[in-house]
Structures are given as C-alpha cells and as structure tokens.
C-alpha cells in the first residue's frame, strides 16, 4: 500500500466512524470542519464557530420532526436543485412557495404536494408571518433582492437561508444580520461546499499535515455567460447581480481559500479584464484574478471568469503532495486526486446530496438552538473581501487587510 492509500484508508475509517455517530450526513466530518475559518477576526464569528461546533452527540431531531420551508423565487436553481432535494432531507420539508408567477407556483405546488393556500406572491409575502407551517424561508432570488427579502422574512418571524453571494453591499449584509438578531431568528448563507463531503475531505487532508506544509492554493471558477439564458440575464445587470463573475462564482474560489487554510487573508492583490465591446460586460466584469496571502504564508491564486469554459477546480499544494479537486464545487461527480512521489491516485468518497445536507443543517441548528456553521457573518466577510479585491484591481495596489 502506498503512503497515499494508507493516508486515505485512515481518513475513510475516520469518516465512516463519524458517519455512524452522525446519522445526519453533515456532521460526519464535523470535528475537523468545526474550526473551519475559525481564525476570523470578528468576535461574532468566533462565537458562531464555537456554537456551531458539531459534537459527537447524536442528532436531537425527533425522527418525525421536519421543519417547514418556504422557497422564495422559483428560478433555475430553486426548481432544478433545491426543491427536488427536499426528498432527501431528514429534518426539512417544503411547505410553501413564493413567486410572481401564479401558474408556475401552482404547477410546482402540485408536483411537490404543497398546499395551494401556502402559495404567496411577492405582494403578500409579508403575510407569511401568519403561517405557522413555515419555520424557514429560503431566498433564491437575484443577489440584489437578497437583503430585502431576508430582512422582510426575519421581520415576519421566520429563520432565513439566503443564497450566495449574501448581498450586493457590506451595508446590506449588516442590515440582514441585524434584522435576524432583532427578530431572534437564525440567518444562514447557503455555502453548500462547506457541507459537501469532497470539500470536507479536502479541508481535513490539508489540515492534517498529510500534504506536508501548505504552500499554495489555486481555485478557478468560470463559465461562459449565456445572454440567452433567462438565469443569466439578471447576472449582466449590476443592480441585480452586485458584481460580475467574482460575485457569482469567484466567491467559491474565495471561500475555498478561506475554508482550506482556516485563515483570513492579510494581503490582497487583483486584476480584472472584460473584453471590450462585449455587450455582456457593459455593467459587470468578465474576469477577475486575485492573490491572497494568509498569515501562515500560504498564497492563494484565485480566478473567476464569465468567459472561459465551465471550470470548478481547487488545487492544494503542500511540501509533500498536491491535492486536486476537479470538479470541486459541482453538484455531483466530484473527483479528488492526490499527487505525490508515488504518482497520482484518485480517492473515492461517498457522494451525498449537499443541498439536503445544508438545509438539514439549518433545520437542526434551529431545533438544537445552535448557530449554523455558515451564518450571516460568513457571507458578510466574503462581501467585504470581494469589495477589497475590486479595490485592489482598481488601484493596482496590494491591499493590507
Ligand atoms: P434564476 O434567474 O433562474 O432565478 C431567479 C428567480 O427570481 C426567478 O424565478 C425569477 O422569476 C425571480 N425574480 C424575481 N424578481 C426578479 C427580477 N426582478 N429579476 C429577475 N428575476 C426575478 O437564477 P438562479 O440561477 O436560480 O439564481 C438565483 C440565486 O441562486 C442567485 O442568488 C444565485 O447566486 C443563487 N445560485 C446559487 C447556486 C448554488 O450552487 N448555491 C447555483 C445557482 C444559483
């Protein structure tokens, strides 16, 4: 058996031991991942992390207890990924829909067994406060609408799951956090990669020292924006999208660098480029390359693009081995390879429905009254850093964080 195989066998044993302890999948690497991003500067974050720390306690969710979820925005991601994933949830069920399109809402209500009385329009969204079946509202609208609908949802007394990126501005993110606090409700950002087994294994491997001393992380997220796809039309508009490729998918590159190092960057440099005269990039940027330096000396070279072909890749370079996760942040079919002096070896881990895991994580956090692992503060930190990335690109200067 090679070193890699031995390393991976012991990781797999540890995973299966934990997954026995945690019947609900998200907890299976909880001990190691609990400290993810634990060095964040803000005290609120530290608190979040410590409260979030999954323990070896079995889930306290009674077997038949499922919290009720309302989905706001019945677009591509909601209908193709999130709504079908409720079937695999242990603690979450779909009970309400919010949409501007009644016919579409009725069609999906029928398909998912949602009571027609639980269909809302944007105009009567606030009356969801009177619906005791709804515990959690999941905001899956264009980014520029996240803040308004999260805040109104919290004011209606509901817990909130909000899609990434959290919002367009730091101020909006802070207002969302404040609204949830004021209403004494939980706010979680849907950073699915932090609940996905291959990414959790990557964090574990990087942190275990099995790759040697960490030196470099590269993370590339790109796709070719399609102006004919309705889901890409709002992505070309700054008001609705907040930013371009960085906000939409570069946030995965940024997240990866942070959750793999478990550190916060201390210096940022960046460069952007948008193809001149390409009508897709009148308001938002095409390409962003950024470099982060972390306190340990790890550098991260990250890219995001709306111009290059579909890419979702993370590489972790250690002094003894290189880990490649490609695709890294896809919905399924992740591929993890360790490359060292023994050659390249692919490592297999059981795929799980990351959407079901993240939704159940919030439901269970509510039931157990714990802070979720990716609270609003986590989304705020990324929006702050993305603003600094733009500033670094604009000024051509390395920014000390
Ligand atoms: P989409 O365009 O398919 O869905 C957006 C929905 O919002 C549509 O139903 C649309 O009708 C509705 N909407 C309401 N008001 C609107 C307005 N003024 N303009 C445009 N649409 C309006 O987009 P999507 O790809 O489903 O993205 C929705 C959110 O989900 C975004 O925040 C995106 O970043 C996020 N997302 C996350 C992932 C992930 O893997 N976590 C993947 C895709 C999208």
SSE class: alpha/beta
Mean pLDDT: 88
CATH class of the largest domain: Alpha Beta
Bound molecules: nicotinamide-adenine-dinucleotide
Output the number of helix runs. 13
Q: Please state the oligomeric state of the protein chains shown.
A: single chain
Counting DSSP E segments of at least 2 residues, the number of strands comes to 15
Structure description:
The chain has 401 residues and is of the alpha/beta class. The protein has two domains: 63-193 and 354-370, NAD(P)-binding Rossmann-like Domain (Rossmann fold), CATH 3.40.50; 197-351 and 384-400, Dihydrodipicolinate Reductase, domain 2 (2-Layer Sandwich), CATH 3.30.360. 37% of the residues lie in helices and 20% in strands. The strands form two sheets. Strands 14-13-12-11-7-10-9-8-15 form a nine-stranded mixed β-sheet. A six-stranded parallel β-sheet has the order 3-2-1-4-5-6, sandwiched between helices. Strand 1, helix 4 (76-85) and strand 2 (92-98) form a beta-alpha-beta unit. The longest helix is centred in the last third of the chain and has 20 residues, at 376-395. It binds nicotinamide-adenine-dinucleotide. Residues 73-78, 100, 140-143, 163-164, 190, 192, 230-231, 234, 240, 248 line the site of nicotinamide-adenine-dinucleotide (NAD).
């Amino acid at each position: 058996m090679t070193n890699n195989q031995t390393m991976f066998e012991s990781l797999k044993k540890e995973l299966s031991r934990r997954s026995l302890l945690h019947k609900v999948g998200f907890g299976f690497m909880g001990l190691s991942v609990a400290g993810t991003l634990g060095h964040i500067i803000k005290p609120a974050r530290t608190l979040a992390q410590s409260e979030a720390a999954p323990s070896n306690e079995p889930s306290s969710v009674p077997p038949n207890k499922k919290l009720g979820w309302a989905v706001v925005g019945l677009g591509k991601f909601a209908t193709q990924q999130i709504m079908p994933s409720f079937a695999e949830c242990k603690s979450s069920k779909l009970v309400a829909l919010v949409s501007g399109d009644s016919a579409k809402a009725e069609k999906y209500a029928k398909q998912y067994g949602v009571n027609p009385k639980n269909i809302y329009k944007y105009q009567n969204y606030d009356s969801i406060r009177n619906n005791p079946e709804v515990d959690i509202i999941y905001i899956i609208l264009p980014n520029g609408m996240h803040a308004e609908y999260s805040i109104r949802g919290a004011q209606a007394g509901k817990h909130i799951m909000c899609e990434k990126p959290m919002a367009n501005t730091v101020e909006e993110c802070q207002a969302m956090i404040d609204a949830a606090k004021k209403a004494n409700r939980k706010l979680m950002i849907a950073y699915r990669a932090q609940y996905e087994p291959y990414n959790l294994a990557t964090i574990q491997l990087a942190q275990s020292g099995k790759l040697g001393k960490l030196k470099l992380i590269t993370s590339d997220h790109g796709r070719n924006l399609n102006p004919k796809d309705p889901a890409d039309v709002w992505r070309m508009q700054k008001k609705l999208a907040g930013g371009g490729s960085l906000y939409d998918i570069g946030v995965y590159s940024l997240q990866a660098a942070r959750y793999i190092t478990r550190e916060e960057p201390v210096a940022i440099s960046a460069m952007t480029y948008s193809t001149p005269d390409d009508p897709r990039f009148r308001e938002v940027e095409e390409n962003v390359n950024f470099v982060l330096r972390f306190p340990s000396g790890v550098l991260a070279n990250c890219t995001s693009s709306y111009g290059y072909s579909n890419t979702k890749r993370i590489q972790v370079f250690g002094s003894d081995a290189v880990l490649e996760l490609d695709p890294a942040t896809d919905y399924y079919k992740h591929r993890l390879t360790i490359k060292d002096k023994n050659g390249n070896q692919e490592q297999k881990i059981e795929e799980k429905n990351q959407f079901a895991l993240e939704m159940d994580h919030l439901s269970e956090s509510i039931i157990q009254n714990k802070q979720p692992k990716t609270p609003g503060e986590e989304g705020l930190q990324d929006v702050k850093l993305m603003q600094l990335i733009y500033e670094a690109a604009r000024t051509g200067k390395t920014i000390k964080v």
